[in-house]
């Protein structure tokens, strides 16, 4: 007699004597081995019943029970299972996993079981009785996935090809009126080949034709003649008794294809992997304890933000990175920015993993306790997308930090199910709470644009995400599959509690590295230019003691160098040592210190704003220049017209140029009279009027163009005017 174990089949001797073959199966035994649960194999739908293990042993010792043969113990070749049966098995297995793996205690309690089945029915959109039958089948037939397969082995003659080809096989054709039914044709090997080729070429294509369309294509290609009428080409389908019927074609299409092949051919590998693939694994089983594997991924948050530099500028939706521990489901790192999904964003999130979370939250004015968001170390493995973690930059993680990077295949974000599910939950919460959140994929005509409601900047969004992370880390997870040891230790399904329990009771996969070493390994590196103003990097100038000491800005040995930088902070950059063990820290010079408090994202937005402002000012400057040129041209035209109206007599060019100095002296005296200060100028007397008249007479006497004067007359008048002016200044005649 073997020991009493789970899945053991026993028969009741008293039932056999009564002429009834009653078999039972042990489906559960508690940890101390005192209690068990069993189901009957003799009824269609059986539910678990409790029993003491000692009662079973006593019945066996007294001959009332004995080992029984398992009637459902069968070995099934996976390749012989029809694809539609596999899909049935997988759908039922999801129900079993939810009930037996995640809610086993409730499933074994008679009072809780009906409520559980109703909940499962709502989740998987089935009837509660279907859940009951599925679980009964699972328990009765050995608690293995194949227990959920339909009983296809009970159907006779399936797959056996009839050899008689003289008579028409299959269902008779329909009668046409009072005529006898048409005989039709048998599907020979030649016809099968034509059906196969039509399916491969036409049906299994991305255009997704219907079965009827595929059938018509086969008739046009293989069962038709070409005729010409009035020069027009036309296909004539053969008579009904010479072609396969639609039902025959449909029958063989189902035989020649399977569900997986149909989906791959018509939907593509991506859709199959996302929507139809098998769901047999448990992600938690990939990690034995905290730190064994982290998952990292990025998403575009469903909210629009504004610039920190100018709230009137909408900058679009932020990129959110999250790093989650597979074992505990705790968020161990995050990053939010406007940098598109790239290595920079991934680097920021990875650096946040090893950050002191209390200090990190304090930077944004949020006070937390260490137990609200425990700090972490680097993981042993990192599951990521192919994009950010393929290429040169991730080599630093592999070579310097000793972390194994696992990249998912293309379009298989579902393999990072933990972080993907968290993204969906976060975005759903954001949509209901934040202004500027995306409400619809496509707005209706006349509907208000939700982007105009944006008020949060990137710093505000980071604060929101910090609160979301802390909420997740300290909240109960409804669908976390705990181990029996966790259940026995009364560990709640809270990420931080599972994390703490795992650190104390499981072997952890952490990798310890100095944080500065981690940051220097992660930081992106670019070229900077050495100029007289400093080390120029993205328009900002930096300096350091080493550069000043070695005279880089006076006589540099080279005009460029590699620098490492943190996109979140522009108040310093780093020059890595050639040895790779240290670095030199550079600070902004006086003219660039104003940018030091900005992040790289905000600096880029500021530069964009300044460029737009410069472009608009340039346009207005051009307009002002055009307006000024117009006024100047107007003045020139007036001067030319005035010169044309003034008769110059027969003065030659030489005469015009001869007395420039004396002419200048006269003009200066006239300007003195007009520009000289005079207090109380508003109270004019007789003398003022006489002086004004005298000046006007003097001007007329010189510039009167109506009188024809010689050059000597003109010079005499100028000399008389100068003499008169001199006498007035000296108070008498000279």
> Into which percentage range does the β-strand content fall?
5-15%
pLDDT averaged residue by residue: 77
How many beta-strand runs?
20
Amino-to-carboxy terminus distance: 155 Å
Total of helices: 25
* Main sheet: strands, sense, barrel: 6 strands, antiparallel
The helicity comes to: 40-55%
Radius of gyration: 46 Å
Kindly name the structural category.
Answer: alpha+beta
Order of strands across the widest beta sheet?
18-15-16-17-20-19
Report the uncertain regions: 279-283, 411-415, 703-708
Task: Sum up the overall morphology in one term.
Answer: elongated
Question: Topology, pairings included?
Answer:
Blueprint: E1 9-12, H1 13-17, E2 23-29, E3 35-40, E4 49-52, H2 53-61, E5 65-67, H3 83-101, H4 104-108, H5 113-124, H6 128-140, H7 189-203, H8 211-222, E6 224-229, E7 232-237, H9 246-256, H10 259-266, H11 269-276, E8 293-300, E9 305-306, E10 314-316, E11 319-325, E12 331-337, H12 343-353, H13 357-362, E13 381-384, H14 395-401, E14 404-407, H15 417-433, H16 458-473, H17 484-488, H18 495-505, H19 515-522, E15 525-531, E16 534-537, E17 540-543, H20 545-549, E18 560-564, E19 573-576, E20 583-588, H21 600-645, H22 653-658, H23 660-675, H24 686-703, H25 711-730
Parallel strand pairs: 8-13, 13-14
Antiparallel strand pairs: 1-2, 1-5, 2-3, 3-4, 6-7, 8-11, 9-10, 11-12, 15-16, 15-18, 16-17, 17-20, 19-20
How would you sum up this structure, described in words?
The chain is α+β, with helices and mostly antiparallel strands and 734 residues long. Helices cover 42% and strands 14% of the residues. The strands form five sheets. The chain has a six-stranded antiparallel beta sheet. A hairpin with a 2-residue loop joins strand 15 and strand 16. It is elongated and about 155 Å long. It starts with 8 loop residues before the first strand and ends with a helix.
